[in-house]
Amino acid sequence: MPGPNFVFVLSLEGERPLRAIAATLGIAGPPRTATFFAFRLWHRLRDAPGRLIVSRGIVALTIGFVIASGCILSRAAGNGWRGLALTAALILATRFNPL
């Protein structure tokens, strides 16, 4: 889902609905189309032997991204190593999402 910048662009084009529609399709169309076709392919290959391996790899990648994002946000907050340690403990010991 597009964020606040997208809503701001639409508010600028509020008096021109065709431009607002074009902006919407240009920003939201490609990722939604890619998601649609990826879901269809994933569903069609549901019995493929490599699907479980790919699924586990995606889960590991996602977990790594969440941990890395939490560490980056903690370092940006300027809390030092204590904040980083607290963030790591919360991520690893609970279901807390640092984002």
Name some characteristics of this structure.
mainly alpha; 2 domains
- How many β-strand stretches? 0
**How many helices does DSSP assign?**
4
Structural class: mainly alpha
Number of domains: 2
Summarize the structure.
By secondary structure, the protein is an all-alpha fold.
Structural summary, described in words:
- This protein is mainly α.
- The protein folds into 2 domains: 1-44; 48-99.
- It is 78% helix and 0% strand.
- It contains 4 helices and no strands.
- The radius of gyration is 20 Å and the shape is flat.
- It starts with a helix and ends in a 6-residue tail after the last helix.
Note the topology:
Blueprint: H1 4-12, H2 17-44, H3 51-76, H4 80-93
Helix pairs in contact: 1-2, 3-4
